[in-house]
UniProtKB/TrEMBL annotation:
Phylogenetic classification of the source organism: Bacteria, Pseudomonadati, Pseudomonadota, Gammaproteobacteria, Lysobacterales
Pfam families: GAF (PF01590), Guanylate_cyc (PF00211), MASE10 (PF20970), PAS_4 (PF08448)
Record protein name field: GAF domain-containing protein
Domain HAMP: from-to ranges: 241-282
PROSITE patterns: GUANYLATE_CYCLASE_2 (PS50125), HAMP (PS50885), PAC (PS50113)
């Protein structure tokens, strides 16, 4: 950036200070002092002019060479004003050294009196003063200002009036001293030779001496004043240029600080103003870019991560967490909380974040541990040390607080009010993005839900626009009409073949219409019988935008399916229709039976009453049937509070036992969810037992010709029921038979529980516990249980008790260990028969 001042061009910040100005002063000093010595000074009048000129020339040439060699080494690094002071003293010292050297040379070599040397010394000092001040001012405006000092005001100020006063006083003092010395000495000489006719020419030289000295001093003074005025004009030009740059939008400019007067204060404040404007402009651009980035991200989880990352860099924090409000539980939860692996949840009024959310106010804390609202538990869990903290509420466009952004540990100190303002502005943008992302998520969920409904419908659904072109046709409609996805956007008549009379009749009006058992002859030649319903579609302004057709296939296959579905599960009915050779009279096959029952149901129903019991059972059965259906199970029947389900009926599969095990685990998980809801309503939780048995059974229609039921019978079914009852004895949730364990294709958390003899059976069977999440044991505990059971089987009652008790010390709720301890203690008092083989119950 170039700056132009009168009479010379200055490059701001280049740091190149040449010696042209002082060279001019050296040449001028040589000429003036030589002329003064040759033509004016009465002591050396008549001296050889070349000798005088060479003497001064050699002296000042030596000073100039010394200046070239030493000045850069002597000049320190610093602000322009400091450099100008050093420049003055260096130049003054060199001029003074030249004057002293010539004075000594004249006295000791040429034999001149000391008065003559004094005049030379005074003349050199006079030139040194003016040259030093002038060159110092020039360096002041040519030296670059350190960037670190551009917005810092000088600690010590020298007002302009004081500097002018010093300059004028210096000029006046030196002019008075020089003129006084010259006048006093020369007038003294004139008085001594007043009547001496031969010295008439010398008397004239005295008057010339006086005028010449005064003229030279005044000329130097005018040059010095011009130089100082030049500095002032240059400083004003820099100020104006900086303001012009700012007004034109160039915020990367600055005003150099080259003095220590009032202009330095103005420059520092101007630079601070420019820096603030630059920071504000950068923050505005950052906020705009962040807002644009947030507006383009519609997925909630990536948006949360982006908000956290942006906040961290935005306010210079070490960690950032975003907590959203869950209105159902009135909690703040943080899925994106840096330093915490799991999702954080805490009451909405708890801690500093809760206070910011509750009061909808910004909270700044300089020392977290001194604030009573701070909960140090999170620091203890994560090993982190929270120092400073800033919490800003996130409000939607209706002023409702939807969460809190929390920043921890400012990198360079404490969070300022500026940080809080910036974060509030960012939080406003984040709130809009969060609401948009939530709306998009809800819309996407609704879309997928609607598409799922359309896919699951057995009836064909076709939506048409105002021009009767297909907008959407679900899979059932495509299969029914014999078309594919290419029908979308095409006229619907293309899929109808020759059957158009009903179409014209059905779509001729604007009201809802229904056509029963219309015979459709499709373009493929296929004939179907269908019930067709037409429903007009309208937008928010109630303007017609198209219609929706619901096509129900009522051909023979549909009628048979409807008939079978009255007494068969949907899956069974579909399989029967797909396989016409299926024998409905009863088939022997291998399958898995699941039997579950609510524990203490009789007591519970007496406490609830009839109406509440029915409500409870409906809620419970809904949850259990969903878990069974989700794993390809078929609900066989409800028996009071019990549920019986089948896996592998009517067609067996390789993974039926695995599906039954997964269904049992899912039932326990759904029961936990149901119990949380019941606990929130102040109701007692439910407990169930589940028995699983795999083996051969008979599946088929049971009943009379007037009322039939598709079910299964056999020992496998009875065993499942008895295993469910055994869960109460052993204090476990799920027991599976040996047949089920053998049929499993994948690994499941099973524990060999006991060898039992089921009622009605002579042979003993091994049963296993399917361990749920709350019942899991580690490998060491499982080995300890097996070892204790081995001692139990070998009649080592004391050793078995010690083993089971050691297991209970680690897992106090382990029901089987408690059962075996009771047996061992009982057997110690009444041992079993000598031929006892470890089966329960003993003979």
């Amino acid at each position: 950036m170039n700056r132009v001042e009168p009479a010379e061009q200055v490059f701001v910040g280049d740091g190149q200070h040449d010696h042209r100005l002082v060279a001019v002063y050296y040449v001028l000093a040589v000429l003036v002092l030589s002329l003064y010595g040759i033509r004016v000074c009465p002591f050396i009048a008549g001296l050889d002019a070349a000798h005088v000129l060479v003497t001064f020339l050699v002296g000042f040439l030596a000073a100039f060479l010394i200046k070239l060699g030493l000045e850069n080494r002597l000049m320190p690094e610093g602000e322009p004003f400091t450099l100008s002071v050093y420049q003055f003293f260096i130049d003054f010292a060199l001029f003074l050294a030249v004057g002293l050297g010539i004075a000594l040379y004249n006295h000791f070599v040429l034999g001149f009196p000391l008065e003559s040397g004094g005049k030379v010394l005074i003349g050199c000092a006079t030139f040194g003063i003016f040259a030093g001040l002038d060159n110092g001012l020039r360096r002041e405006r040519r030296s670059p200002a350190p960037l670190s000092a551009l917005t810092v005001s000088p600690k010590r100020i020298f007002p302009i009036t004081d500097r002018l006063f010093v300059i004028f006083i210096s000029i006046a003092v030196f002019t008075s001293i020089v003129t006084g010395l010259v006048i006093i000495k020369d007038i003294d000489y004139l008085i001594a030779h007043l009547n001496d006719a031969p010295h008439a020419a010398l008397r004239r030289a005295v008057f010339i001496d006086i005028g010449f000295v005064i003229g030279v001093v005044l000329a130097l003074a005018m040059r010095l004043l011009w130089s100082y005025g030049n500095n002032l004009a240059y400083i004003l030009q820099l100020q104006i240029a900086g303001l012009v740059d700012v007004s034109s939008g160039k915020l990367d400019t600055f005003v150099p600080i080259i003095t220590r007067d009032e202009f330095s204060l103005i420059a520092a404040k101007t630079n601070r103003m420019i820096a603030h404007l630059r920071d504000a402009h950068r923050e505005q651009n950052e906020l705009f870019e962040v807002s644009l980035a947030l507006a383009t991200e519609l997925r909630l989880e990536p948006l949360l991560a982006r908000i956290v990352a942006t906040t961290r860099s935005f306010v210079g924090a070490d960690r950032v967490s975003l907590f959203l409000h869950d209105p159902h539980s009135d909690e703040l939860w943080g899925k994106i909380a840096e330093g915490i692996e799991d999702v954080m949840r805490f009451p909405a009024s708890s801690g500093i974040a809760g206070d910011a959310f509750t009061r909808v106010a910004t909270v700044r804390v300089a020392d977290a541990y001194s604030d009573p609202r701070f909960n140090p538990e999170f620091d203890r869990r994560s090993g982190y040390r929270t120092r400073s903290l800033l919490c800003v509420p996130v409000e939607d466009r209706h002023g409702r607080c939807i969460g809190v952004i929390q920043a921890l540990n400012k990198h360079d100190g404490e969070f300022s009010e500026s940080d809080a303002n910036r974060l509030r502005a960012f939080a406003a943008q984040a709130a809009i993005a969060l609401v948009n992302a939530q709306l998009f998520s809800d819309l996407d969920r609704a879309r997928r839900y609607n598409e799922s409904i359309l896919r699951s419908l057995s009836n064909g659904v076709v939506t048409l626009d105002a021009d009767l072109k297909v907008v959407k046709a679900n899979a059932a409609a495509q299969a029914l009409l014999g078309v594919d996805d290419q029908i979308h956007g095409q006229p619907f008549q293309q899929a109808l073949g020759e059957s158009r009379s009903w179409w014209e009749t059905l779509c001729g009006g604007v009201e809802q219409a229904y056509l029963s058992e219309a015979e459709l002859q499709l373009g493929s030649g296929k004939h179907i019988l269908a019930n067709i319903t037409r429903v007009p579609l309208a937008d928010l302004e109630d303007r017609a935008i198209g219609s929706m057709l619901v096509i129900e296939d009522v051909t023979e296959e549909k009628r048979v399916r409807n008939t079978l579905s009255r007494y068969l599960p949907t899956q069974v009915a579909e399989q029967v229709l797909l396989n016409p050779a299926l024998n409905l009279g009863g088939v022997a096959q291998t399958a898995t039976v699941l039997f579950s029952d609510i524990r203490d149901f009789t007591t519970l129903s007496e406490q609830l009453g009839a109406r509440a019991t029915v409500t409870m059972l409906n809620e419970y059965f809904s949850a259990m049937v969903e878990a069974i259906s989700a794993h390809d199970g078929i609900l066989d029947k409800y028996i009071g509070d019990a549920v019986m389900a089948l896996f592998g009926v009517p067609f067996a599969g390789a993974h039926d036992a695995d599906s039954a095990v997964r269904a049992a685990i899912a039932m326990q998980e759904r029961l936990q969810q149901l119990n949380r809801q019941r606990t929130d309503r102040g109701e007692d939780p439910l407990a169930i037992g589940i028995g699983l048995s795999t083996g051969e059974l008979v599946a088929g229609n049971v009943g009379s010709p007037r009322r039939m039921d598709y079910t299964v019978i056999g020992d496998t079914v009875n065993l499942a029921s008895r295993l469910e009852a055994a869960t109460k004895l052993y204090g476990v949730a799920v027991i599976v038979s040996e047949g089920t364990r053998a049929a499993l294709q994948k690994d499941h958390p099973l524990r060999e529980l006991d060898r039992v003899r089921v009622k009605g059976k002579l042979l003993a069977a091994t049963v296993y516990q399917l361990m749920t999440e709350s019942e899991r044991l580690d490998e060491a505990a499982l080995k300890l249980f097996a070892d204790a059971r081995g001692k139990y089987s070998t009649r080592d009652w004391q050793g078995a008790v010690l083993g089971f008790r050691e297991l209970l010390s680690r897992f106090p709720e382990d029901g089987p260990s408690k059962v075996f301890i009771e047996r061992c203690l009982a057997f110690q008092q009444n041992p079993p028969a000598a031929d006892w083989d470890g089966v329960w119950p003993p003979h």
